[in-house]
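User: When convenient, might I ask for sequence and structure tokens for a protein?

AI:
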Amino acid sequence: MSGLRGGLAGDGRARGVWLGVLAAIVAAGLVSRSLRTGEPLFDKYLGDALYAAMVYAVVRLSGLTARVALWSGVIMAAIELFQLTGIPAALHRSGPLPVRLFARLLGTVFSWFDLAAYAAGIGVMAVADQKLDLDRDGRSWSRPMS
């Protein structure tokens, strides 16, 4: 069990940093979805990358310190593959408002480009996580990027 849990449970400072990172990602995602530039890279795929980055932060906040990128990728792939069932699209068309919003969060159309954007978001988070070394040694929750 060591190495998989414990990183954030006892370190309020690191938990606070990750909560701040999560809040910043959510804010950036909302901005990216509300501002339209006409450029798909910004209008669509930045939001997808931020969605995956948000999942990475949530997985990290769960206490996992090992294989965070892998688990985040599995979650994002499962969400994207679930769209192939047609269930999210059907919920989006016919459910009550909360169900339609949930279906919208899941996405309703499968896209390989979405998977690429998710990989980019998770990759950026994994590199930043490793560079910052947030709470890995139990003493230092940040160090300068080199």
